[in-house]
Specification:
about 375 residues, four-stranded antiparallel β-sheet, four-stranded mixed β-sheet, about 20% helix
Length: about 375
């Protein structure tokens, strides 16, 4: 494929992408692929009702926004920007309500510098990954560094070199196929903890500004965005379906698979699906809380989006939970206030998925679940 215009005997030769943009084929293919991806909302095992379908289609619009930001607006690894890809209106793969996520596109052929202030956020982790959500359904971690390993000055200032070649000081490794960096800031008390303020820049960049948009960038960005939408939807719809055999239970997840699709290596995950009638509640008990950085539980919809934590109490963590006298914890998932501590709201849902995390724990004790009638709840 040609990548620029040239002239032969007075005739302009265009690249394939230029031809696709001029003819409108690039846009037509984008729209056709988007329409095809909509069929995933109608998957056979997914809930078949107007409410869950509406959330499914909204989910597609959210993933489209995320894909366009990633592949069209911020896909230049020469000028990476740490931005928030998952938040209150873009949710992916059981996104943690306690997290502030950041990501940037990077190229293993270059070296990068992350710098800024640590803040007081409870947990800060940096990972380099091979993000293949748009093709292959994986997000393999190629290097990881958390705040417990990072050297910084007395004011909390830190610098991290991101490269394939080992560096002295704070070094975050890349592999030969690394294409992205992920940052997790995990809060226990979001109202009072101070987030880290960090930036990233390419070391040795030859220019201080990116080149103008080209047909190739547009064509590649549109294809990447819709591929990301389709691939991400398929990954997590398939995963939600896999939870059905353990409905209303909360067993340990396949930790290797969690890591394959981008899980934090310091987290042990429990995942499953839940379903409750209008007069039912789900009681979740953790009889043993291990020594850990933190822990949390959250309720998600079928599409593995965290429920709307802006307006509903859909999660609890180590700091916010009410503990029993013996140190154990009991949570109650219920449609209406059951009048007991640790109420997890269903926010209008009758079915969905759920997640429990032990973060930074050396032991991972089980949690138990029991469905009962609201009237039976003691």
């Amino acid at each position: 494929m040609l990548v620029s215009r040239s002239s032969t005997e007075g005739k302009i030769i265009m690249s394939e992408s230029e031809e696709r943009v001029l003819s409108g084929q690039a846009w037509d293919d984008f729209c056709d692929a988007l329409k095809e991806a909509g069929k995933l909302v109608q998957s056979e095992a997914a809930p078949n009702n107007a409410f869950d379908n509406a959330e499914g289609y909204r989910y597609l619009t959210r993933l489209l926004r995320a894909g366009l930001e990633s592949f069209l607006e911020h896909g230049d690894s020469d000028f990476p920007v740490l931005r928030c890809p998952v938040h209150t209106t873009i949710k992916i793969g059981a996104d943690n309500p306690d997290n502030y996520y950041q990501t940037a596109s990077i190229n293993p052929a270059h070296d990068y510098l992350i710098k800024g202030t640590r803040g007081t956020v409870d947990y800060l982790g940096f990972g380099t990954v091979i993000n293949r959500y748009g093709g292959g359904g994986s997000m393999e971690t190629t290097g990881y560094l958390d705040s417990g390993e990072i050297e910084m000055d007395d004011e909390g200032y830190l610098e991290i070199v991101v490269s394939q070649k080992e560096q002295s000081g704070n070094w975050l490794p890349m592999g030969p196929n690394t294409n992205s960096i992920n940052v997790r800031q995990t809060f226990q008390d979001r109202k009072n903890e101070i987030p880290a303020e960090i930036t990233i820049e390419r070391i040795g960049a030859e220019s201080d500004r990116p080149a103008p948009l080209t047909a190739e960038k547009l064509d590649r960005g549109l294809q990447g965005a819709v591929g990301f939408l389709r691939g991400t939807t398929q990954i997590f719809e398939d995963w939600a379906e896999s939870f059905l055999p353990t409905l209303n239970e909360l067993p340990p997840a396949d930790q290797a698979y969690c890591q394959k699709i981008g899980g934090d290596p310091n987290i042990f995950y429990f995942h499953s699906a839940w379903k409750l009638e209008d007069d039912e509640v789900l009681v979740i008990e953790a009889n043993e809380i291990p020594e850990c950085q933190t822990w949390n539980f959250q309720l998600d919809n079928w599409w593995m989006e965290s429920l709307d934590y802006r307006y509903h109490q859909i999660h609890v963590n180590k700091h916010t939970a009410h503990y029993n006298d013996d140190g154990s914890v009991r949570l109650v998932v219920a449609h209406t206030d059951p009048g007991v501590p640790n109420w997890i709201e269903t926010a209008g849902h009758n079915v969905g998925t759920m997640c429990w995390r032990w973060i930074g724990a050396s032991e991972h004790p089980p949690v138990s679940c029991k469905v009962m009638k609201l009237s039976e709840l003691g």
